[in-house]
Amino acid sequence: MDQLELIDRVRAGDPEAERRLYDANVDRVYRLAYRMTGDSDRAADYTQDTFIRVFKHLDGFRGDAALSTWITSIMISVIYNGQRKVKRLRERETELGGASDVAIPTRSPDPDLKERLASAVDALPDGYRTVFVMHDVEGYTHQEIGTALGIQEGTSKAQLSRARAKLRLALAAFAGD
Amino acid sequence: MMDDQQDEMLPGLAAEYHQPPATPREEIWARIQAQRADPPVDSPVLPFRHRAVGRLRSPAARALIWVTGVAALLATGIGLGRLIPLGSDPAPVAVTADGGATPDRVANVMGMAVRQYLSRTETLLVGVRAGDESSQFAGMARDLLGMTRLLLDSESLTDTATRTLLEDLELLLTQLVVLPSTQNPDQERSLITAGMADQNLMARLRNAIPSPLGSAPAVYGEL
Predict the structure, then answer these.
(1) Mean pLDDT over residues B112-129, rounded?
(2) How many Å apart are CA B149 and CA A78, to the nearest integer?
(3) Would you call B152 an interface residue with chain A, using a CB distance cutoff of 8 Å?
(4) CA distance A140 to A148
(5) pLDDT band of B46, cuts 50, 70, 90
(6) Hey, are the CB atoms on A77 and B199 less than 8 Å from each other?
(7) By the CB < 8 Å criterion, does B13 face chain A?
(8) What's the rounded Cα separation, in Å, for the pair B142 and A152?
(9) Helix (H, G, I), strand (E, B), or coil: what is residue B216?
(10) Which ipTM score applies to this complex?
(11) Cβ within 8 Å of A, B 85-144
(12) Beta-carbon neighbour count of residue B194 at 10 Å?
């Protein structure tokens, strides 16, 4: 069954086709959701929300992009909305707890290189982090990233370059310790 | 270490960043099936908001958008005019031997940049809530997104509340940039405006806009 046929069958309400579509894409969605959140519960929540919306709005998919890219763009929107809520909750918890620092670094004070890099990735602005994780960690192309995020390929490349520059600084500081 | 070498190293090192476990396929599938069988009741707030948005699409509301934008532009122009010394006019602020990059002046410039940014963002968000065509504001959202990142990158912006607001706006602007290319922009817009309401974003934005007539707030630190 090719992709168009699969989509037609899902649109017609075929439960087997729905499951096929899910199986073909769920790993990719969950992996990126987990990479972006570092939390299995939230990754599962976002994956669930993503597929709910995919099935709900599949009639609106016109095939301008690959189905996987369309699903990725939905997932990014779900993640951004969800992360915003998480951030707001953490801020409230911080206010209630009286802590002075809003940032949430939970890593050890003397991290190794990978830990240092992970902390630096966590600290990237969301746009940079999204592009870095998609490209350098999950292997998306700039074309896929551009389509999924609604930005030009050149913008994706520029954001990746800036993200790497920030990470280089973090690693250079580590090397100098 | 050379940049190129580090760039080659980064993906290898980053491969372990938030290393995902095996996908809990069956668990997620069961939850999807359960939610689709028993979908949550839609909030009654959304339709009401849509009706309110409809009223905002009046000519008066659109005029307000333009007036807000022009006012922001004027405020910036007046502010810049006060800051930039011209010809033999006496300098309006203290001047140091190095040409005048005093903390006060830096704070003034940063305050002005933030004020202009917040005013433009407010203008944009009023248009979003008013239901303007998404293609009309995608370009402006993209510009503001770039400015958001510049401001967030600046060490002069030290106020935590303003930073938090900018981080929220960064995500929102990213969604607006993406909006025209989504398959169902109306649905996306509903989610975006619902998110704005959830976060009380417009009120926070307006509260954060410093008065153009007052002195620069002290929240913007030194370079």
Answers:
(1) 85
(2) 21
(3) yes
(4) 10
(5) very low
(6) no
(7) yes
(8) 11
(9) coil
(10) 0.85
(11) 138, 142
(12) 15
Interface touch B183/A19, C-beta < 8 Å: no
Cβ pairs bridging A and B (under 8 Å): 146
Tokens of residue A1, six digits: 């069954």
In terms of DSSP H, where are the helices of B57-212? 59-83, 103-130, 134-153, 160-178, 185-198, 201-208
Contact A171, A120 (CB under 8 A): yes
Residue pLDDT, tens place only, B132-176: 776 677 788 888 888 887 787 777 777 778 888 887 888 788 878
- Given this model, what pLDDT does residue B127 score? 82
Task: Give the whole-angstrom CA distance, residue A114 versus residue B64.
Answer: 51
Q: Quote the CA–CA distance of B120 and B74 in Å, as a whole number.
A: 12
Longest dimension (CA), chain A: 61
Task: Look up tokens 């890593």; give the residue.
Answer: A107
Lowest mean pLDDT segment, chosen from A73-82, B76-85, B99-108, B130-139: B76-85
Q: Is the per-residue pLDDT at A167 higher than 70?
A: yes
> Residue for token digits 């972006």?
A36
What band does A136 get if pLDDT is binned at 50, 70 and 90?
very high
Question: Which residues, other chains included, contact A18 with Cβ-Cβ below 8 Å and sequence gap of 6+?
Answer: A10, A55
Test the B interface: residue of A151, A153, A162, A174 with most B CBs within 10 Å: A151
